[in-house]
Amino acid sequence: MIVIAVILAVIGQLVSADQQQQLALSSAVSDFSQRLYQKVALDESNVVYSPYSIHSLLTMTSLGARGDTATEMKDVLGITSLGDSVHSIYRETIQQFNSQSRIQLLTGNAIFINPSYPIVPEFIQETSDKYLAKADNIDFNADGGPEKPINDYIEVKTEHVIKDLLEPDSIDGLTVMLLVNTLFFNGTWNSPFEEELTRKQDFKLLGGTVKQIDMMYGSQRRTNIKKDDVNNVDVAEIPFRGRRFALYIALPRACDGITDLENLLQQPGKVDELFTGLQFKTVEMTIPKFRIETKLELEDVLVDMGMVKAFSEELADFSGISHGVYISRVIHQAVIDVQESGTVAAAVTVGEASSRSIPVIVPFIADHPFLYFLRDNETGQILFQGRFSG
Predict the structure, then answer these.
(1) Which tens digit of pLDDT belongs to each residue from 42-92?
(2) What keywords tag this UniProt record (predicted)?
(3) How many CB atoms lie within 10 A of CB 228?
(4) Taking phi first (over 0 means left), then psi (-120 to 50 degrees means alpha), and beta for anything else, what does residue 380 get?
(5) CA–CA gap between residue 244 and residue 230 (Å, rounded)
């Protein structure tokens, strides 16, 4: 039996796509992300992953799926109602992301093919047209093994943040193809934190213990914030230059309230509600300085979510790619680094309006476990999501 290996490497205004379709895709990615979160994050103290990267790569792969395999993939990804338009929306999203000037945002797709196997030409053409994917052959004679050129490609595309993703001997003669999506997001806060104000402070861990961690402080920051008394969660937006992209922190009111928040966000549409109803306020903000790196093997997770046939040697139908193939692995690695100047995944700068009146200052102190989302405010796409528990 022949296999396909799917690899995801991550370091998060449409011109012609219908706005309703873009919102439908963003909603599908959000719901997919929360179902995925329940599988990969609940047992981890700190985690980061890219809903955009995982969803877009699997949607691209679905171009070659047929029959029940295609049906299951589209159902799990939540894209059935979008039909073939989903691929055009992703094309325009890729083009827009790669044309950003106020932040460094680079996303791309590549396909590495075993030249010993016949590949349906239409699949290569469609992935090139819709996902701007570059196709190349796997070099089985490469110095360091066939993994090295692919690892080098990923390292370059992620600005040397992700290295040696593929382990030695992970590619063999039965590998038909590797599909790769890379996403790199680097930016500066709209209003940077002052390094000299960062200091060790108490962070309340689950279970009642306390840990000293580096906390960044910003006095009288003008930003969007929401006090949600119904769901007992406060949400703060920390924008990057240009304000199109922002890091959102969803902070439960209770120190041990993160489980209730995670359960709430399982409900369809609830995650999108986090980003509505925020108001522009003067905020006194204290948040952790942190770096998180996560590597995930997603094949069992995706099977549990309902994508069964795609991973079955006997049942998979990827005849739109080649005959007798199935997905063997889905590897995902993500990194996020939140510092005083910005985040390796975002950037922003906006002039602050002055006021003669004395502002009402709203406190926002993230000193206990919370969820975070790095989001495109224009399309609604969640580029990165995760949990910080200290």
Answers:
(1) 888 999 999 999 999 999 999 999 999 999 999 999 999 999 999 999 999
(2) Signal
(3) 15
(4) left
(5) 28
Among 39, 211, 64, smallest CA distance to 131 is for 64
Question: How many residues are listed for the chain in this entry?
Answer: 390
Identify the residue whose tokens are 């986090």: 274
Would residue 207 be called left, alpha or beta, if left means φ above 0 and alpha means ψ between -120 and 50 degrees? Answer: left
Q: Residue 234 carries which side chain, given as an amino acid letter? A: D
Write the DSSP assignment of 206-245 as a string of letters.
Answer: TTS-EEEEEEEEEEEEEEEEEEETTTTEEEEEEEBTTSSE
Token pair 């790669």 is found at: 98
Residue 222 CA to residue 338 CA, distance in Å, equals 19
> Quick one: CA torsion of 252, 258, 263, 265, rounded to 10 degrees?
50
**Which residues sit opposite 179 in a β-bridge?**
6, 111
Query: What pLDDT, on the 0 to 100 scale, is given for residue 343?
Result: 55
Phi-psi region of 176 (alpha: psi -120 to 50; beta: other; left: phi over 0): alpha
Cα–Cα separations (whole angstroms), residue 98 to 21, 104, 136, 350: 21, 8, 21, 22
Q: 3-state SS of the chain: helix, strand, coil percent to 5?
A: 30, 35, 35
Q: Number of C-alpha atoms within 13 angstroms, CB side, residue 355?
A: 9
